[in-house]
């Protein structure tokens, strides 16, 4: 599903980083491991089409996304991808359900009430459907972010340090939720992290080291 | 942001009030001067002559001799001449001695009662009647002079014979009577009402050589004692405009003033006032526009993370651009709509609460096509204010923004 070949990226034209070639099949989960500053986020952003101006190729489902225009990348993300970030940014002016609906709305998909309820139930948030964001706990907010990322049934879920700020119990909870949500839609799960705890849940990984810089 | 929009609304409200006020004032001035080609009266300021004898604000410049006025009225250039005699008032509303021709000028119709025929009979304009609660059959004492503080003519009571329908002209604020009535009141100060009634009008004592004055038929032509305040003239042909004023100004002891000319001067003077207030409103709007721009710009800095997230969900750059532009435009549109409502509302309120505004007949409920321009302009304003922030949103570097925690 995802194939990376000869991928290199230059920061500021001088510092260059080369990424190892790798591929991930549909429905598989893969960690991108490495210390801070090893380029994990950069790789994730490149794979998600959030960063361009790289050299090499990234094939997702047969399409070389490095050749796509900015607009085409936007559409690609709307159709195929879901993103989760370390600090979840939910829109405080909207309720939980409305936050979820942002995803299909922006991707020009149908806003399905039933699908929203389905996802909320999966993540144990159905009671908080109409709550305001301010009323949620940290863990609940994180789960809303996950819900928003999976509501469109994306083919790939990109997660950047989803568990790094959580304690062991919550880390366990979140990774299990992510895996469950991914398996529901046969999504490929890509997690960039330095959290070693995740290794016990996901075996496949791409190791980045500072020496590749 | 609410504060900035309020500032915009205020500016728009001021413009709206100005627009309504000056448009209606201009309309009324033109309406009142319609049909009158020239005003002849005592020498003095031409503007004062017009203000007094057409708009019935300001005081007379003096009197003119009836005989002299007749000579002008006989000119071939004159189609119609209407005499006016001012001097008294009632509760601040002027009593005008004139002929029925004056009322015809403004297409007046009786709402109740009949026209005056005998001495001391009056017909009241609609606003006078409603403000003073007059009806046919009522009688009142007039006050000498045109303000409410003059001494009363205590022995002379006027009787209301009729009330006019609203004409939306200066006529609504006037009390009309015959010229003879005004003369009577002033010649017989000190007589009791019975003495006035018993005083036979000159028309009963005419001998066979009596030729009636063309202006005041009950008086002999060429009577050298009678005076009136002014005469309103309609030309028979456009030649009159060329020749009449010069004739009057150079060959008589009276002066002639052209309503068209003087009202044009009036507009110029008014125009300066309007310009100043308009300038103030523009400054207000400019400041509000600046503040809206700053608020939008700043809000974008806070929202850039949200915007980046939206891009990851599939929003295109164009979507973000349009969102910001719409935001600015809708805000300014709402602000200007609020301003328009405030402007109309203020005038409505003033018209209900302040008598002078009511007398001037300013209406808060009329809509002008220029107001569509105001709405359109505010949309453009919103667009311009949001352009820079929108371009910034368009150029969001997703990766960089997301990486900055």
Explain what the structure shows:
- Chain A has helices at 40-47, 70-80, 96-106, 113-122, 138-150, 168-184, and strands at residues 2-11, 15-18, 22-24, 29-33, 55-60, 63-64, 81-84, 156-160, 188-193, 205-207.
- Chain A has a single domain (2-212), classed as Rossmann fold (3-Layer(aba) Sandwich).
- Chain A is globular and about 50 Å long.
- By secondary structure, chain A is an alpha/beta fold.
- Chain B has two domains: 2-23 and 277-403, no CATH class; 38-257, no CATH class.
- The model of chain B is unreliable at 199-206 (pLDDT under 50).
- Chain B is 54% helix and 17% strand.
- Chain B has a six-stranded mixed beta barrel with strand order 3-4-9-6-8-7. Chain B has a two-stranded antiparallel sheet with strand order 2-10.
How do the helices and strands line up, and which of them pair or pack?
The complex is a heterodimer of chains A (213) and B (405).
Chain A (H helix, E strand, L loop, with lengths): L1 E10 L3 E4 L3 E3 L4 E5 L6 H8 L7 E6 L2 E2 L5 H11 E4 L11 H11 L6 H10 L15 H13 L5 E5 L7 H17 L3 E6 L11 E3 L6
Parallel strand pairs in A: 4-9, 4-10, 7-8, 8-9
Antiparallel strand pairs in A: 1-2, 1-3, 1-5, 5-6
Helix pairs in contact in A: 3-5, 5-6
Chain B lengths: L1 H32 L4 E5 L3 H8 L10 E2 H8 L4 E13 L2 E5 L2 H6 L4 E4 L7 E4 L1 H7 L6 E6 L7 E13 L10 E3 L1 H9 L5 H6 L28 E2 L1 E6 L3 H13 L2 E4 L1 H54 L4 H37 L1 H6 L9 H25 L3 H6 L2
Parallel strand pairs in B: 4-9, 6-8
Antiparallel strand pairs in B: 1-11, 1-12, 2-10, 3-4, 3-7, 3-11, 5-8, 6-9, 7-8
Helix pairs in contact in B: 1-9, 1-10, 9-10, 9-12, 10-12
Structural class of chain B: alpha+beta
Radius of gyration of chain B, whole Å: 31 Å
**What is the fourth-level CATH superfamily of chain A?**
P-loop containing nucleotide triphosphate hydrolases
Q: Which band does the percent of strand residues of chain A land in?
A: 15-25%
Keyphrases for this structure?
heterodimer; A: 213 residues; alpha/beta; Rossmann fold; five-stranded antiparallel beta sheet; five-stranded parallel beta sheet; 6 helices; 33% helix; B: alpha+beta; 2 domains; 17% strand
């Amino acid at each position: 599903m995802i194939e990376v070949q000869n991928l290199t990226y230059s920061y500021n034209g001088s510092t260059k980083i080369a990424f190892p070639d790798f591929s991930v099949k549909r429905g598989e989960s893969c960690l991108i491991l490495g210390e801070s500053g090893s380029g994990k986020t950069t790789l994730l952003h490149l794979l998600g089409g959030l960063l361009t101006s790289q050299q090499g190729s990234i094939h997702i489902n047969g399409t070389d996304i490095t050749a796509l225009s900015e607009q085409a990348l936007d559409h690609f993300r709307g159709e195929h991808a879901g993103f989760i970030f370390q600090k979840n940014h939910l829109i405080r002016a909207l309720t939980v359900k409305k936050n979820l609906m942002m995803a299909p709305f922006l991707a020009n998909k149908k806003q399905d009430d039933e699908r929203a309820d389905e996802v909320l139930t999966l993540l144990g948030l159905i009671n908080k459907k109409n709550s305001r964001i301010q009323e949620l706990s940290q863990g609940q907010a994180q789960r809303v972010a996950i819900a928003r990322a999976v509501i469109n049934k994306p083919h790939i879920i990109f997660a950047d340090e989803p568990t790094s700020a959580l304690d062991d119990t919550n880390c366990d909870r979140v990774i299990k939720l992510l895996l469950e949500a991914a398996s529901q839609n046969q999504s490929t799960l890509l997690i960039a992290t330095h959290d070693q705890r995740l290794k016990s849940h996901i075996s496949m990984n791409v190791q980045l080291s500072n020496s590749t810089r | 942001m609410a504060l900035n929009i309020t500032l915009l609304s205020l500016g728009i409200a001021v413009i709206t009030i100005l627009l309504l006020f000056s448009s209606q004032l201009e309309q009324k001035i033109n309406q009142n001067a319609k049909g009158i080609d020239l005003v002849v009266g005592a020498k003095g300021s031409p503007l004062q002559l017009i203000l007094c004898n057409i708009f019935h604000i300001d005081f007379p410049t003096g009197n003119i001799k009836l005989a002299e006025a007749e000579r002008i009225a006989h000119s071939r250039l004159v189609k119609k001449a209407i005499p006016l005699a001012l001097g008294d008032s009632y509760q601040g509303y002027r009593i005008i001695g004139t002929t029925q021709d004056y009322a015809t000028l403004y297409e007046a119709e009786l709402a109740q009662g009949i026209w005056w025929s005998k001495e001391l009979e009056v017909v009241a304009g609609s606003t006078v009647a409603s403000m003073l609660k007059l009806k046919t059959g009522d009688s009142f004492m007039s006050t000498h002079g045109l303000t409410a503080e003059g001494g009363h003519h205590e022995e002379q009571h006027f009787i209301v014979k009729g009330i006019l329908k609203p004409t939306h002209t200066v006529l609504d604020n006037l009390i009309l009577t015959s010229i003879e009535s005004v003369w009577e009141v002033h010649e017989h100060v000190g007589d009791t009402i019975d003495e006035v009634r018993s005083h036979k009008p000159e028309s009963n004592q005419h001998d066979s050589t009596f030729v009636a004055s063309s202006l005041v038929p009950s008086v002999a032509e060429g009577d050298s004692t009678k005076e009136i305040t002014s005469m309103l003239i309609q030309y028979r042909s456009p030649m009159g405009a060329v020749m009449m004023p010069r004739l009057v100004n150079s060959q008589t002891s009276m002066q002639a003033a052209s309503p068209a000319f003087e009202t044009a001067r009036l507009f110029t003077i008014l125009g300066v006032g309007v310009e100043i207030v308009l300038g103030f409103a523009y400054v207000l709007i400019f400041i509000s526009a600046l503040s809206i721009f700053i608020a939008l710009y700043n809000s974008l800095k806070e929202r850039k993370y949200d915007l980046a997230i939206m891009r990851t969900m599939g929003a295109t750059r164009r979507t973000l651009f349009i969102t910001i532009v719409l935001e600015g435009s809708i805000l300014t549109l709402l602000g200007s709509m609020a301003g328009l409502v405030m402007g109309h509302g203020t005038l409505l309120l003033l018209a209900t609460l302040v008598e002078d505004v009511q007398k001037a007949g300013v209406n808060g409920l009329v809509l002008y096509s220029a107001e569509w321009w105001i709405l359109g302009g505010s949309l453009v304003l919103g667009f311009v204010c949001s352009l820079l922030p929108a371009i910034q949103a368009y150029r969001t570097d997703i990766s960089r923004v997301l990486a900055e925690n």
